[in-house]
Amino acid sequence: MLRQVCNQHITFANYHPSTALSPTLSQREREFSCQKPGRQGGPDESKEIPIVRLFLLALTLVASGALSVSAQQPPEQRAGLGEAPTAYDAKGAAALEGRLLTTVLNGSDDSPVTNVRLAVKNISPNFYTYVTGWATFYDSGAVRCGEGLFKLDALAPNESAETDTPGLRLRCTPASWRIVATNLLTRTYDAAKPTEAAPPPAETPVVEKTAPVNFIISIDGERYPIQVDRPIVLKLGNRNRKIILRPVP
Question: pTM score, two decimals?
């Protein structure tokens, strides 16, 4: 069928006015007219389509993975200068809490603030052997105007330590700030130790009480009821006597 179409095309071209002086097509024109796409010289579209689909599928998986990771890690929220912002670890758990100690922060482009003091508290159950992070400051329009790196060598759970931010260049009077943890190194023992659930409280043993056993004491024909470890007082002669009945082990 293709051969017939090509022959008809060549015949029509032979009698076209523009080819009247050249009744025979050139070899290149014949190849162009009768070439089948995808077989002789042309790209195979049937092979390109699966490759494009695989590329789009891989791109979709990467994007969904990035969204899931970002959803698991809560962003560090800005806080006022008198408030304590929180920094999170890679798993999204609260790790550090910051408190600003320097109260006078009046920076500008000509005279930036180059260092501040802050207290960092470990609010996680892990013992950190090395801690680093960024303290970032924002002006009243929520525009970042300075950031400084802080670090601590060791920080136990619920422990606070003072540090500073050398290299800071604060170019405004900040209205808010936040901290972000960049390195939280734990002890090898803490990293290898799985999370253990708290043991259940020990149950108090229940002591079973034995039912009281009744006895009778007969003195000169008079009968007196008595129980184990229950004393009774009897008047014998001119004196009162306390009688206690105890079991023999």
Answer: 0.49
Q: Given this model, what pLDDT does residue 216 score?
A: 78
CA–CA distance, 65 with 73 (Å, rounded to integer): 13
Ranges of the chain whose pLDDT falls below 70: 1-49, 52, 61-74, 189-198, 207-213, 249
For 198-208, the pLDDT digits (tens) are 677 777 777 66
- Among the four given CATH numbers 3.40.50, 2.30.30, 2.60.120, 2.60.40, the one describing domain 79-192: 2.60.40
Round to whole Å and give the CA distance between 144 and 221: 105
Res 62: pLDDT: 64
> Where do we find the tokens 């259940």?
200
- Between vectors from CA 69 to CA 66 and to CA 71, what angle results, nearest 5°? 110
Helix H or strand E encompassing 78 = none
Question: Of the candidates 147, 178, 174, which has an alpha carbon nearest to the alpha carbon of residue 84?
Answer: 178
d(CA 231, CA 245): 7
| CA–CA distance, 1 with 218 (Å, rounded to integer) | 133
Question: Which residue is it, tokens 């008595």?
Answer: 226
Closest alpha carbon to 107 in 169, 45, 37: 169
> Nearest CA to 76 among 61, 66, 86, 67?
86
